[in-house]
Amino acid sequence: MQEETNIYFAGIDIGSTMTKVIILEDKDKVCSKVVGPTGAEHRRLANRVTHDALEHAGISIDEVAYIVATGYGRISVPFADRQITELTCHAKGISTLFPTARTAIDIGGQDAKGLKISNGKLVDFVMNDKCAAGTGRFLEVIAEALSIRVEDLGTISLQSTNKITISNTCTIFAQQEITSCLSDGIPLEDILAGLHDAIATRVIGMVKRLGIQPSVVLTGGVAKNIGIIKAMEENLGHTLLVPEDPLFSGALGAAILGREFVMQSLAEGTDAPKKERHLEAITFFSQEN
Asked: Domain 99-236 class?
């Protein structure tokens, strides 16, 4: 009896702050996923994180049928067979996880995006990538100023009994306003609840330009902040859907799109064009003097 051969696909999402890789089996099974911080040398990091993901999956790169790169640094993955925009990949990943999704909000390290989805495809979007307000970096700066861990912001904010209003979402002015509130003796949890509400109000105000329709999905690193989820649900007036691993929707969508491209090529009797599979460390910087 002939042994069944698994087919693997890889999605690599190089975001502004984090790089994510998913290895997907043919039958929708995620067999490996790895995340690491994005540095200045995107190609070297893509090499390392992809190597780790392959190792966790127990396969070699030659066993991967197709590799799709997406995100901020997608052009910096020389071994990817195709580059696809992060918006398209996010829409595909989100609609795969939540088929009822009509609106998606992705809050990453340095931008916030709203996606309008219909029949699993992106039909419109809005984006804030000019200002740190409403992004993960904004929360990191505030956490540093308060000398607390960014992962603790949400939990602390849930203890609030008298949420205040934060009028500034500019990073510098918000820091000054929060420092002033602390000096006035306002409890930290009330300040953080107000901060999360200010971020939610700003992001939802942007996404409303699309016409928000349920189901609404929240993704990105900031989706791990339970205080942000609560604030956004209060602003929207209904529950958000949040993936178990909200960082990976783009990488998942990239892997799925790669699989669809290969399946379409096979149906047409053609071979999907592939790049050479080399995972050597590559650098942007010359080694010459």
From this structure: alpha beta
